[in-house]
Specification:
Largest sheet: 4 strands, antiparallel
Distance between the termini: 57 Å
Structural class: alpha+beta
């Protein structure tokens, strides 16, 4: 039965090839999931659609913020106009009060002048009557008859004439004063009337300014509400984008792990075949050997997966360590104004510490992280490299490159851990590679 024996030999060789010599430790693990190209492309298309929506909402929000800024300027202008109207109203009220007081004083003077004239007229009448009554010492006929000489009589006549003339002159002066005071009274009353009109106009201007300020503030509040809604919509879509990007990254990671597994399996199959060939030739083979290295991308994918697992966490200056998010610390400036010291989260270098935990330990300072690994030109950067921003004054920001022009970062106070396009303004010329 040569055919049967030949078939047995082939089967035996096949088993040797499949299982190898005992104790080699080269059995491949079960294959990891291998997403299809269509699944990856669908994930990318979904992420691109979400990115486009984020871009559209970002533009809308930018326009809304510009409009809100213009409305804020308008509110400030209306506030200043309201302040001016308030000052003008106070000035007009003071002027009206002063004009009213002046008018009252002028009327009092005019009334006093009229009373003086009436008294002077009464005195003049009394003098005239006395001058023509007999028996009077001055201003009567006896003043002439009792004169001792013609010269004395002439002197008495001149005296009577002077007294009478002086009284008439005084009456003229009083009447002139009354005229002047009456004119002053009329002018004061006119001034008071004008002042009251200005006061009414200032009061109306103040009312209009207050109404304009209220309308401007309402418009600002309405725009602020729209901005808040836009910000929420943008945040919601960003979260969807992060989830879609994470899904794509996960699918790409699965594909990479599958490719690594396939390459490892191929090496193991080749090694089994070689050992089987040696065994069939009677040459024996090594009783054991070092296991092949693990998948090349596994460490990078673990790092990226850890970073992406913190999407949406708050930025907290000084926050983050190898175990996860921590409470931020005070900086005496911007971070304090945002209350970072009361938040649990990450700053940019803290997120990198957490992402690379288990791979290597990093200092909590982006400047030291820049020199913690091998530096490569940006033209050769690849998934898993660290990107830095800074200038002559030093490094001030770090992010983890995801590939495809995207990065994950803890951006700044008031924001959250996010995936964003790589910003090339102010970027350092080298990326830092910690793995591979």
């Amino acid at each position: 039965m040569p055919c049967a024996r030949r078939g047995l030999s082939v089967s035996t060789l096949t088993l040797v090839i499949l299982f190898g010599a005992g104790g080699t430790g080269l059995a491949a693990p079960p294959p990891p999931p291998n997403p299809s190209d269509s699944e990856i492309q669908a994930g990318k298309a979904d992420a691109n659609a979400k990115a486009g929506e984020v871009g559209r909402l970002t533009n809308q929000l930018a326009q809304a913020e510009q409009k809100l800024s213009q409305l804020q300027d308008d509110v400030e202008l209306k506030q200043e106009e309201a302040n001016k109207a308030l000052v003008d109203l106070q000035t007009a009220q003071d002027a009206a009060t002063q004009a009213e007081n002046d008018a009252k004083a002028a009327r009092t003077e005019a009334d006093a002048a009229s009373a003086a004239i009436e008294q002077a007229r009464a005195d003049l009448k009394t003098f005239a009557a006395a001058s023509f009554q007999q028996g009077s010492t001055v201003g009567s006929l006896s003043a002439y008859l009792s004169a001792a000489s013609p010269k004395d009589m002439l002197a008495r006549a001149q005296l009577l004439d002077a007294v009478g003339g002086d009284r008439l002159n005084a009456l003229d002066r009083l009447q002139q004063a009354q005229t002047e005071k009456s004119n002053k009274d009329a002018a004061a009353r006119k001034a008071a009337e004008i002042a009251r009109q200005k006061q009414d106009a200032a009061r109306q201007a103040k009312s209009s300014a207050d109404a304009a300020q209220t309308a401007a503030e309402r418009a600002q509040d309405g725009q602020a509400a729209q901005n808040t809604q836009l910000e929420k919509n943008k945040s919601d879509v960003e979260q969807q984008l992060y989830a879609a990007q994470a899904k794509v990254s996960g699918l790409q990671g699965q594909r990479q792990r599958y490719d690594d597994w396939l390459a490892q399996k191929q090496r193991e199959d080749e090694e089994r075949a070689r050992q089987a060939a040696l065994a069939s030739a009677g040459g024996g083979g090594p009783s054991g050997g070092a296991a092949p290295p693990g998948p090349a991308g596994s460490s990078i994918e673990a790092v990226i997966a850890r970073a992406l697992s913190k999407l949406g966490m708050p930025y907290a200056w000084g926050g983050g360590n190898a175990s996860g998010a921590t409470r931020g610390i005070r900086d005496g400036g911007v971070a304090d104004r945002y209350g970072d010291y009361n938040k649990i989260g990450f700053d940019c270098s803290g997120l990198m510490i957490y992402a690379f935990a288990g791979v290597r330990s990093l200092p909590h300072y982006s400047g030291y992280q820049y020199s913690s690994g091998r530096q490569v030109p940006l033209s050769r950067m690849r998934r898993g490299d660290l990107l830095f921003w800074g200038g002559p004054g030093g490094i001030h920001h770090v992010a983890l490159y995801l590939g495809g022009g995207q990065m994950v970062e803890a951006p700044q106070s008031g924001l959250r851990v996010r995936v964003a396009p790589v910003r090339y303004g102010g970027i350092m010329p080298y990326a830092t590679r910690l793995v591979g």
